[in-house]
Design goal:
388 residues, alpha/beta, Rna Polymerase Sigma Factor, Chain: A, 3 domains, seven-stranded parallel β-sheet, four-stranded mixed β-sheet, 15 helices, 16% strand, globular
Amino acid sequence: MYKDLILLGSTGSIGISTLNVIKKNKKKIKIHLLSTNSNIKKIYKQAVEFNVKKIVIYDQSKLHKYSHLLKKKKIKVFSSISNAMSKNKKKVYLSISAISGINGLKPTIDIIKYSHNLAIANKESIICGWKFIDKELKKNNANFIPLDSEHFSVWTLIEGENKKNIKKIYLTASGGPFLNKKLSDIKNIQPKFALKHPNWKMGRKISIDSATMMNKIFEIIEAQKIFDLDIDKFEILIHPKSYVHAIVHFTNGLTKFLAHETTMEIPIINSFYKKKETFAYNNKEFFFNKLNGLNFIKPSKRNFPLLKILNYKFENTYFEIILITINDTLVKMYLDETIKYITIHEMIIKLLKKPYFTKYYKDSPKNINDIKNMVNKVEKYLHTYFDN
């Protein structure tokens, strides 16, 4: 008996990792639908390889180049999740939302009604729109699985536990490529060096977020929302080996941690199976030597000044949307080499204090359109700000 899957964002890094897992489990997992924003060439190859007959392409401007090939393979193309799934009477076992950026929020919400289980690897959607996702999950009686390795680890470690017994949760960070360097020494560092993550293979944007520690800040905000715990319960620990992904310390004196290799394939494959089901992941033996000299370190605000952001309150207001958009814009500018590395750190802290933004910190979006409008407003402001 196979398990059916919907994979949103199949052409991105998480989507590709998911397909690598499915290659090893083709007899057990069947893909019902794939989606991409504009990578038509890649999604066509994926659909052919995995015999997928439905795909969603949001940007269809170049579709004419592949129309004859798609028609020949009897692959139906849709412009939205709703159109693709409108005639489906049964829910699929699992949907994975791996679309990067805030554009992943609406497709994530749209797919919930067609899913028994939803796994998300999209920070922006959770940070900006968790209350809308959570509402839809409850409405459709769908289970939620956090797919980022840190959140998946916490989710696994606290299953069956009373949350009142949780004293502290530690999310680990590698420290990125500049762990042992002072920020003042790398203020003009070129993007090609910032992209060299020591342990993980990641996309360009998230690699820069890892270097600045913003990625881990986002993960703390995510965790607060997903697990419904006070942000003071969470802390970041630098763990250069990236083998331990989360640590939970309980009030009874016990401490549990979860370790696995630096590949997203492990949380992905585990999201397909319930705890009591038997399956095997084709990994290597247990590397006990990686637990020797774990070398946990508390990150310094001097080297990672963006950690000051965690002093703000995260209450599902426009603050989170503004933070995400400012960071996205500055990282893009850095990758385009129009600003310096140090500018990311300095400008995020500075811009968050601007009265133009602070006036929104007590207000909350009422729907997804409110989120989109705020993103557009912030982008427009930043465009004017940096052009002057």
